[in-house]
Amino acid sequence: MSIATQTPQQVLETVFGYPAFRGEQQAIIEHVVGGGDALVLMPTGGGKSLCYQIPALVREGVGVVISPLIALMKDQVDALAAVGARAEFLNSTQSPDERRRVEQALLAGEVDLLYLAPERVTVPATGQLLDRLNVALFAIDEAHCVSQWGHDFRPDYLALSMLHERWPSIPRIALTATATQATADEIVARLDLGAARRFTASFDRPNIQYRIEAKNQPVQQLLQLIRSEHPGDAGIVYCLSRASVEKTATALAEQGIPALPYHAGLDARVRADHQSRFLREEGIVMVATIAFGMGIDKPDVRFVAHLDLPKSVEGYYQETGRAGRDGLPSTAWLAYGLQDVVQLRQMMDRNEGDAAYKRRQSQLLDAMLALCETVECRRVQLLAYFGQSLGVDRCGNCDTCLAPPESWDGTVPAQKLLSTVVRLDRERRQRYGAGQLIDILTGKRTPRVEQLGHDSLSTFGIGDDLNDQEWRGVVRQLLAQGLLAVHGDGYGTLVITEASAAVLKGEREVRLRREPKRAPRSSRRSAP
Ligand code: ADP
Ligand code: ZN
């Protein structure tokens, strides 16, 4: 029986070898097979590919898949060929001869699925080619790339609105694992999908254990995580900069962990080699910037670690979502510190972009900080960010559920700290970061303290009831709560905010989260 005369259920079984659809796959597929437009929001690993692959096979003609993941097209086409589907791709890595061969096959009606790089869509020759084909559907994968606010913005995606203008009768299905209302609305607006039916899957990933802890000695903390809970496991470690990627990969390798670096500054061949080793070998730890990961289909990534704070909850969710696609217990672990906040705020200040853009970036960071500092269930808060509810107050599989953090009254320490900031600000001679503040509060007569006469400030030594690390926690949490801010001077100087006044006047209580002394142990690797 030819594929084209089969039902979606039959294609699922005979071509892909699966007995049943998952979640909303069937409804989505039937809608698209029937010629409707669809917007599909489904988490990583949820099974988005079948949602366009099966309609492409069932409907007559070729299904055209727009995907930004050029490096993965060959793998995707090979995987489809392995199950007997006729797939091809067209992108800039091909020779003209190769492209001509694909075009011949398309014109001969010998292709079920065509993967197309977004930058090829606007090439006139592509339009002429598509005009001559019987196109079954357009699938726009990683549709959030159209969002200019997002971290994966691809300018070529903006041109995809022309698909509908030029071929209005061909159904479109846009898919993404980015779930915020704002992103979904932007996709609808930019791709003209107002009439599309929206399918939203639950974004809960119950097998991922979310944990966020204070960053002290990040590499040591990471080693502890790997050795005690994930020895020999494959994992991804995200760092903000190329330099810290290199440094961390080297440090892990020196400790006998098979770690490889990945960032945009590496030679393309090195990157491709590291990626393929990560995919094919067991137990590789990829240390990477966020340049790595989109579209990587490795089911058994057991942990995703962040050594620097992601810029948004969306980014955090995407990156952690690469753990545990196989549904088995996995860890999402983030170490975050005061310096992260200062650094990200400075990066935002330096960023090009208008005031609205900066405000928006700052709001995204605030939401990420709120997730870090919450005493509530991380999963509940994460899902709430995407407008979803878990139906219970506590998930039982995140650090705050496993070891509920205590909160304490930090009003007095906050007042001590804020009044020191005010006193230093009055001097107006120099600007000071957190280190100098903490030295003053804890009464340390460092050369700098003595030289600047800070030991004669009335707040000198009034905070010696807390140690340096505890003070750093206070500063970090005040930053997260908007009771302190980073000045735009490029030096990381801390300044008070409008909201600080109420604290200084004793009109507002400050609740702080007490950092657990020891990270909670994962529940899965209990003693034999
Ligand atoms: P996404 O693109 O949403 O991240 P994929 O389409 O790559 O997810 O699917 C994730 C994994 O789940 C793949 O290994 C895929 O083969 C598998 N999968 C998808 N749908 C089903 C199904 N109905 N039954 C069994 N496995 C499925
Ligand atoms: Zn929880």
TrEMBL record:
<protein>
    <recommendedName>
        <fullName>DNA helicase RecQ</fullName>
        <ecNumber>5.6.2.4</ecNumber>
    </recommendedName>
</protein>
<comment type="similarity">
    <text>Belongs to the helicase family. RecQ subfamily.</text>
</comment>
<keyword id="KW-0238">DNA-binding</keyword>
<keyword id="KW-0227">DNA damage</keyword>
<feature type="domain" description="Helicase ATP-binding">
    <location>
        <begin position="29"/>
        <end position="197"/>
    </location>
</feature>
<dbReference type="GO" id="GO:0043138">
    <property type="term" value="F:3'-5' DNA helicase activity"/>
</dbReference>
<dbReference type="GO" id="GO:0003677">
    <property type="term" value="F:DNA binding"/>
</dbReference>
<keyword id="KW-0067">ATP-binding</keyword>
<dbReference type="GO" id="GO:0006281">
    <property type="term" value="P:DNA repair"/>
</dbReference>
<keyword id="KW-0233">DNA recombination</keyword>
<dbReference type="GO" id="GO:0006260">
    <property type="term" value="P:DNA replication"/>
</dbReference>
<feature type="domain" description="Helicase C-terminal">
    <location>
        <begin position="218"/>
        <end position="368"/>
    </location>
</feature>
<dbReference type="GO" id="GO:0046872">
    <property type="term" value="F:metal ion binding"/>
</dbReference>
<dbReference type="GO" id="GO:0016787">
    <property type="term" value="F:hydrolase activity"/>
</dbReference>
<feature type="region of interest" description="Disordered">
    <location>
        <begin position="512"/>
        <end position="528"/>
    </location>
</feature>
<dbReference type="GO" id="GO:0043590">
    <property type="term" value="C:bacterial nucleoid"/>
</dbReference>
<dbReference type="GO" id="GO:0005737">
    <property type="term" value="C:cytoplasm"/>
</dbReference>
<keyword id="KW-0413">Isomerase</keyword>
<feature type="compositionally biased region" description="Basic residues">
    <location>
        <begin position="514"/>
        <end position="524"/>
    </location>
</feature>
<dbReference type="GO" id="GO:0030894">
    <property type="term" value="C:replisome"/>
</dbReference>
<dbReference type="GO" id="GO:0006310">
    <property type="term" value="P:DNA recombination"/>
</dbReference>
<dbReference type="GO" id="GO:0005524">
    <property type="term" value="F:ATP binding"/>
</dbReference>
<keyword id="KW-0479">Metal-binding</keyword>
<dbReference type="GO" id="GO:0009378">
    <property type="term" value="F:four-way junction helicase activity"/>
</dbReference>
<dbReference type="GO" id="GO:0009432">
    <property type="term" value="P:SOS response"/>
</dbReference>
<keyword id="KW-0347">Helicase</keyword>
<keyword id="KW-0547">Nucleotide-binding</keyword>
<keyword id="KW-0862">Zinc</keyword>
<keyword id="KW-0234">DNA repair</keyword>
<keyword id="KW-0378">Hydrolase</keyword>
